[in-house]
Amino acid sequence: EAAVRGGARMVQLREKRMDPGAFLEEAGRFVRLCRRLGAVSIINDSVEAALKAGADGVHVGQSDLEAGRARALLGPERIVGVSAHSAAEALRAKAAGAFATGTKTDAKPISKETIRAVTAAAGEIPVVAIGGVVRENLLELKGLGLAGVAVVSGIFGQKDPEAAARELLALAKQL
User: What is the crossing angle of helices 67-74 and 87-95, to 10°?
Assistant: First the structure.
C-alpha cells in the first residue's frame, strides 16, 4: 500500500513459499487493494491464481508456463509479463503476446548493449528493467529504450517505502 501511495502504478505479488490455498487468499486481498488504490495487479507464476483473483495480469519466467499458453488462458485484455534476458527471449515473448519484463532470483546482470538489443527486439512491447535497481543507479539506464523499471528492495527494503517509491518514480520519469 505504501509503495502505491508513493507512486508505484503496477505491483506484482510474488510469493514462492506459500501454500496454494493461502496464496489464492493473499492474491484476492492483493487485487482488491490494488483496485482500491488504482494500481495494476500482477500475479507471479500462477495463471490460475491470477484468473481466480481477478488480477490484471501474470508474470511467468522462462521455466514457467509458456507465454503463449498463459496468453490463451488469460485472453487478450490481461497482461502477460515474461522474463527476458536476451533479444531471442524477448522475440519469443513478443510472439507469444507478452508484456516483456524480467525477474528471477538467479538472474545475472546484463550489459547496456544487451538491454538495447532486448528493447529493439521487443519493438512496441514495453520493456522494464529489474534487478538491483536503486536510487543510486537508476539513471544509468537512461537512453536504453526502457519503458520503466521494476523495483523491490529499493522500495520495500527502505524505512519509508512510500517516500522511497516517490523518489524512485521521480527518477524513473527521467528515463
Answer: 30
Half-sphere exposure of 99 (CA within 13 A, CB side): 17
Q: Which three cell numbers stand for residue 46?
A: 500462477
Q: Which residue has the higher pLDDT, 30 or 154?
A: 30
DSSP H or E segment with residue 16: none
Catalytic residues: 14, 83, 104
58-91 pLDDT, tens digit each = 998 877 888 889 999 999 899 998 887 777 877 7
Question: Each residue of 133-163: pLDDT tens digit?
Answer: 888 989 999 999 999 898 888 898 899 999 9
| Sequence-distant (≥ 6) Cβ neighbours of residue 118 within 8 angstroms | 84, 85, 86, 87, 89, 90, 100, 110, 127
Report yes or no: 43 and 49 within 8 Å, Cβ to Cβ.
yes
